[in-house]
Write a structure and sequence with these properties.
Strand order of the largest sheet: 4-1-6-7
Shape: elongated
Distance between the termini: 53 Å
Strand content: 35-45%
Number of helices: 0
Number of strands: 10
Order of helices and strands: EEEEEEEEEE
Helix content: under 10%
């Protein structure tokens, strides 16, 4: 490595599909700083799958061993301004959602936890407020 940017190169996709910028991302796809990939589980997938593998990539050479990327199963909690849990989503799916209908105007917070101590350093949150 000569001081350039270090990224990742997809080595294999074990389960589900990967996309980068809306296009299919498979073996050989690079992921440089600031770029993202989206992993989509197959229908019926549950648990904490070993989704794909990556190698470190400096633009010329890849690391000799691939590292497994494990998708973390999360629990989502909706809390009121006092920290009281109002709703919890804890399914075996690879996404969680809680409804906001029926809630009074006010401040609310989300708490996201990994199951069994798993850690996820990245996840997406989408908010659709009731009309």
């Amino acid at each position: 490595m000569d001081g350039g940017s270090l990224g990742f190169r997809i080595a294999s996709v074990n389960v589900g599909t990967l996309t980068k910028g809306g296009a299919s991302a498979g073996s050989g796809t690079t992921l440089m700083p600031g770029e993202t990939v989206l992993w989509t589980p197959p229908n019926g997938q549950s648990g904490t799958p070993n989704a794909f593998t990556v190698t470190a990539w400096d633009g010329q050479f890849a690391s000799p061993a691939a590292v497994q990327v494990k998708i973390v199963d999360l629990t989502l909690k909706l809390l009121d301004s006092g920290g009281n849990v109002l709703k919890t989503a804890d399914t075996a799916n690879n996404y969680e959602e809680v409804g906001l209908s029926g809630l009074a105007a006010g401040d609310y917070y989300f708490e996201v936890l990994g199951k069994g101590g798993d850690i996820s350093r990245g996840y997406a949150v989408s908010l659709q407020t009731p009309v």
